[in-house]
Amino acid sequence: MSKENTTKSSVPLLDVNRGNSLLRDEILASIAEVVDSGRFLHGPQVGELECTVAGLCQTKQAIACASGSDALLLALMALDIQSGDEVILPSFTFFATASAVARMGANPVFVDIDPKTYNICPDAVEASVTSRTRAIMPVHLFGQCAAMDKITAIAKKHDLPVIEDAAQAIGAEYMGRPAGAWGDIGCLSFYPTKNLGGMGDGGMMVCSDTEMAAKLRLLASHGMQPRYYHKLVGINSRLDTIQAAILNVKIAHLQSYCDARQKNAARYAELFTSAGLTECVELPYQSPHALHVWNQFGIRVPGGMRDSLRKHLTELGIGNEVYYPVPLHQQECFRDLGYTDGCLPQTEKAAKEILHLPIYPDLTEREQDTVVNGIKQFYESASLRRAA
Ligand SMILES: *Cc1c(COP(=O)(O)O)cnc(C)c1O
What's the gap in Å between 202 CA and the centre of ligand 1? Predict the structure, then answer.
C-alpha cells in the first residue's frame, strides 16, 4: 500500500494520546505535585479519587487498588471464597473475571449469554445454582450492564452475594442505578483503554456495606492494622498516588467521554443503516433499561464472513479487534474443568461472529465514514464475487 493511501484511510482502533494531549499541562502539573510531595503511596489524591468514584457509583465507599484484576480477587477474598466453592460467571468476558475465581482455588461455573446484549443470561444463572454456589459475578460487557434486576433477585432468593465486574462500565446505569451500586461489591479498572483510563494500571472497589468496605481495605494492605499487626492474610494492592492524581484530572471529563462514545455509537447506527449494511451485519443492541457507555462497539458478522471482513479492514488500515476470540470455557488453562465444545452455544457463536470497531471519544466523523465505507466496500465486492 502506498504511503499516501495509508495516511488517507488509516483509522486507529484506539488513540489514547488524542484525549490525553488536551489535558497534558494539567496532568503534568498534577504529577509534579505528587513528585514534590514525596507521598507516592497513600497521598491525598487517592482519597480524593475514592470520594469522587463513590459519588459517581452512588455507593457509600470506594477502595482503590492496583488493578481491576486485583479488585475482583480482593472482592472474592473479602467474601471468604474457599477451595471447592463455585462462582457463577459468564464465559464471554476478559480472562481476569475467571482467573480471580481460580486463584482462590474455587471453581468458575461458566454460563451462557443473552445473544443480544452478550451479557450473562439470568435464566442460565438460576439453572446453575447448586448447594456449592457461593457468589454470582455478572460482567457489564462492552459498557452495558447485565440484567441486574433479575440477577440480584436470583441472588437474593438463594442468599448469594453479587460481585459486579464493572471494569468496562464506569458511568453506566441500569434502570437508573449505576454500575457497581447493584451488587455487594463493584469492581472497576483504570487500565488505559477503559472509559476512565490511567497512565498505567489501577483499579477500585465500590461497596455500600461499611464493614465489607473496611475488610476490602484491610485485605488490600496486607491485612495490616495497626502497622505490623496482621489481622488477615491480605495482599499488597495499592493505587499509586501519581495514577490517582492523573485520574482526578481525567474523571472531571468522564461524562464528556461517555457522551462522545454514545454519539459515535448513534452515528455508526445511522451510517450503517443508510449504507444498507444492516442487511449484512447486526448492530449492537441497547437494552431500554441500560445507559450504555460504549467501552466497545461490536457488530455481529454472520455467515462465516467475520474473519475475511477483518482482513479487509486491516488491509485498509482500519483498526479492528475481536473481544473475545476464545471463550473462557474453551481456554487451555481451564481444560480440566471439563467443558465440552458446544456446551455454551450463544457464547461460542458470539466469539465467532463479533467484530469490534473504533469507538473512542476523539474518533472523527471522517474516520467513522472511512470505517463504514470500508465495510461497504467489502460487501459490494463480496456480492460481485458471488455474481461472477
Ligand atoms: C479490563 C478488565 C478487567 C481487568 O482489569 P485490569 O485493570 O486490566 O486488571 C477485568 N474484567 C474485565 C471485563 C475487563 O475488561
Answer: 10
- List pLDDT tens digits, range 230-268: 999 999 999 999 999 999 999 999 999 999 999 999 999
Residues of the chain with CATH 3.90.1150.10: 6-10+254-387
Helix (H, G, I), strand (E, B) or coil at 87: strand
CA of 199 to the centre of ligand 1 (A): 15
Count other Cβ atoms within 10 Å, centred on residue 210. Answer: 10
User: What distance, in Å, lies between the first and last C-alpha atoms of the chain?
Assistant: 26
Q: Which of 65, 118, 190, 191 to mutate to test the pocket of ligand 1 (most atoms within 8 A of CB)?
A: 191
φ, ψ of residue 127 in degrees (nearest 5): -70, -20
The 10s digit of each residue's pLDDT in 4-16 is 444 456 999 999 9
Expressed in angstroms and rounded, the spacing between residue 295 Cα and the centre of ligand 1 is 12
CB atoms within 10 A of CB 207: 28
* CATH number assigned to the domain covering 21-251: 3.40.640.10
Q: Report the sign of the C-alpha dihedral through residues 194, 196, 200, 204, in that order.
A: negative
Quickly name the fold that domain 6-10+254-387 has: Aspartate Aminotransferase, domain 1 (3.90.1150)
Q: Which residue out of 113, 168, 239 has the highest number of ligand 1 atoms within 8 Å of its CB and is therefore the one to mutate? A: 168
Burial 234-255 (b: 16+ CB within 10 A, else e): bbebbbbbbbbbbbbbbbebbe
- Determine the atom of ligand 1 nearest the C-alpha atom of 189: 7
pLDDT in tens, 20-57: 999 999 999 999 999 999 999 999 999 999 999 999 99
